[in-house]
Write a structure and sequence with these properties.
The protein is mainly alpha-helical. It folds into three domains: 105 residues, no CATH class; 56 residues, no CATH class; 34 residues, no CATH class. Helix content is 69%, strand content 2%. The chain contains nine helices and two strands; from the N terminus they run αααααββαααα. Strands 1-2 form a two-stranded antiparallel ribbon. The two termini are 45 Å apart.
Amino acid sequence: MEWLKTILGENWTEEIEKAISDQIGNLFVSKERYDQVNEGRKQFEEQLKERDKQLEELKEVAGDAEAMKEKIKALEEENKASQEKASAELEQMKKDWATEKYFEGFEFTSDLAKAAAIQQFKEKELKLEDGKFLGADDFMKELAEKNPTAFVSEEDKKKPVITRPTGGTKPKGKMSLSEAMKYKNEHPDANIDDLI
């Protein structure tokens, strides 16, 4: 979310970005996901219009001919199968998007752990109702109890990240005692005698 850093400038923090990202995810659908679903709906509507047009043309030409009646029946069945397939694909897209959004609320210790959890979640085939999976929280709680090392714990979040100083480069010229002490604090490997 580089645009957010540009807007907030020096007030930007990871916590602010995460809070805004969470709210955007809860309140809005991404443009990419919206376009994808909308395109699927348009294709489905176009297919339906084309099938209906074919059926009407055949009904006009058919009269009482038995062969034409069978052709119409076959097209009607094909139309129904096509409609069911398009509905199933649209439903799957909704489930995939809802799964993606649901898993944003969890922190995993690795991408592999997250992928495995998503796979098990999908295999459970939980019912999606009003954009939420029924029984999802219970499933994730059970999964976390069985696989505690797959999730980042609260304790892990509190552990400080320790980094070693790189030493940096020695400043040019001589320093005052206070400047040298400050530099020594920032660069423990530096020799204070060389600075003064």
